Amino acid sequence: MKTLRMRANLVFSVAWLSMALVGIEVTQASAKTTLRVAYSSISGSAVVPWIAVDKGLFAKYDLDVELVYVASGSQAMQSLLGGTTPIALQGIEPVFRVNAHGSDAVMILGLVTKPPFSIVVRPEIKEYRELKGKAMGITRYGSSTDMLLRLTLEKWGMKPETDVPILQMGGVPPILAGMQSRRIFGGPLSLPTLSRAKQEGYRELADVADLVPEYQVAGIVTRRGFIKQNGDAVRGFIKAMIEATAMFKNEPAITRKVMKERLKIDDPTVIEETQKTYLRYMPMIPYPSRPGIAVIKSFLDKSEPAVRPLNIDDQIDNQIVRELEQSGFIQSVYYSK
What we know:
This protein is of the alpha/beta class. It has 16 helices and ten strands. Strands 2-1-3-10-4 form a five-stranded mixed sheet, with helices on both faces. The protein has a three-stranded antiparallel sheet with strand order 8-5-9, with helices on both faces. Helix 2 (44-54) packs across helix 11 (231-250) and helix 12 packs across helix 13 (268-277). The longest helix is centred in the N-terminal third of the chain and has 29 residues, at 2-30. The protein is globular, with a radius of gyration of 24 Å.
C-alpha cells in the first residue's frame, strides 16, 4: 500500500512538474520582445513602421516596438552601435562608414530602392543652368540628399561646390524653409515636403529618379551580432514590415490615417500624393538594391578612402527576405485576398 502511495505521489509530482514546465513555456512564448527602433526621416518610408505599430503587426510576432525619431542617419547609427536602438530605418551610407572601422552593421531589408526626391527651386529659377553660383541646400553632408544633389549637378555638367555652393540645412523641411527665407535657391525634397513646396509655387526642376534610377535610399539596418542573438525577433520584425508595406500599397485609408495621426500631416492632397507616389519606390520583395548601393559606394570611394576596400555584399544580408520569398510568405501577404 505504501509503495502504491509513493508511486501515486511520484506520478502526481511528475504530472505537476510537466504542467508547470508547460506553463513556463507558454509564459515565455507569450512574452513580447521589446525593441526600440530609430527612424531618421519624416517621409513616406516612415509611414510603414507606424502602420506596423498601429495595426498590431509587430505585436502579432511577439514584438513590443517603440519607434524613436532621430534627426539624421548618422545619429541613428550611433544609437544602433550603442545598443539604444538596435534596429534602425535608414540609408546604407552610415553602414559603409562604421564598417570601414571594423563594425558589423548590415542592411537586411530594402524598403525604398529608388530616390523619392525631386530637385525643387525658387520660382524665379526657370532651368538648371540658372543655378550656377546660387546656393542649394541638403540635409547633411554625406547624406542621401547630399549625394543625390551632387550626382544630379554632375549630370547637368556642373561641379558641386565650385559651380553651385551646397549648404547643410539639417533636414528636408528645413530645405524648404531655407528657400522661403531666400538663404538657398533650392534642394532635393521628398514627400510630403515636396507636395507642400509645389503648392506654394516652388518649381520642380527634375525627378531625381529619372536621372539616378537605382539608389538605395532607406532600409532596415542592424548588426550581425544582434541577428545572431535575436534571430526570431529580427525575423518577426521583417515579417511585420513586409505586411505593413503591403498595407501601405493596398489600403490607402490606413496610410492616410497613419500620416495624419502619427506624422501630423493634415493636408489631404499631400497625403494622397505621398501614398500614390511611393508605390513605385518600394519593391514588393524588399531586397536591398545592389545596383543602388553600388552607386553610393562609387560616390563614397571618391572622398572616403577607408570605404574603398569594402565589398558591397558584406554590407547587406538577404537571408531573411530570401527565406520569406522562397517560403511563399511575401506572395501570400500580397495575394491572399
